[in-house]
Specification:
The protein is mainly α and 137 residues long. The chain has a single domain, classed as Growth Hormone, Chain: A (Up-down Bundle). Helices cover 59% and strands 7% of the residues. It has a two-stranded antiparallel sheet with strand order 1-2. The radius of gyration is 18 Å and the shape is globular. This is IL9 protein.
C-alpha cells in the first residue's frame, strides 16, 4: 500500500466520522425559529374534519426524527404552496433518518407520538429537541 492510498483511506474515515455526528442542529434551529416567527397558526388542534388546523405528532422520546419527517411532510402536502423552509426541513429530516446521521436521536423508523398538537406546538418540539442537542455540542 502506498502513501497516497493510506492518505485517502484516512481522509475517508475522517469524513465518515464527521458525517456520523451530523445532526444539522444550527440549520434546523434557524429554520424552525424563522417558521415560528412567521407563524400565526396557534389555533387548537382538533382531530375533526371541520378543523382547519393541522394536527401534527408530538413525538415520544426516540421517535423524534420519524415524527418530524411525518409532520413536515403533512405540512407540505396540505399547503397549496408549501414554504421553501418547510420543504428544506422535510428533506433534512428525511436525510438524517435515512442515513442515520445523527446518533443523538434514536432511530425509530415509525413515528410514535405522545399527543398531537398544532403547527406552533410541533415547531416548538422541533426547536426544543435541537436546542437540547446543541447544549451538548
Amino acid at each position: 500500500m502506498n502513501a497516497s492510498m493510506l492518505s485517502y483511506i484516512l481522509f475517508s474515515c475522517l469524513l465518515l466520522s464527521v458525517q456520523a455526528e451530523y445532526c444539522g442542529v444550527r440549520e434546523i434551529i434557524r429554520y424552525t425559529q424563522r417558521l415560528l416567527d412567521d407563524s400565526s397558526v396557534s389555533c387548537p388542534c382538533r382531530q375533526t374534519a371541520t378543523s382547519s388546523c393541522s394536527c401534527l405528532p408530538i413525538p415520544k422520546r426516540g421517535h423524534e426524527l420519524a415524527c418530524f419527517v411525518d409532520g413536515t411532510k403533512h405540512l407540505m402536502e396540505t399547503s397549496t404552496s408549501p414554504s421553501p423552509v418547510i420543504t428544506r426541513l422535510y428533506w433534512t429530516f428525511q436525510a438524517l433518518l435515512d442515513r442515520r446521521l445523527c446518533k443523538r436521536l434514536a432511530h425509530g423508523d415509525q413515528c410514535q407520538y405522545q399527543a398531537k398538537g398544532n403547527v406552533k406546538e410541533f415547531l416548538e418540539k422541533i426547536l426544543t429537541t435541537y436546542q437540547e442537542i446543541d447544549k451538548f455540542n
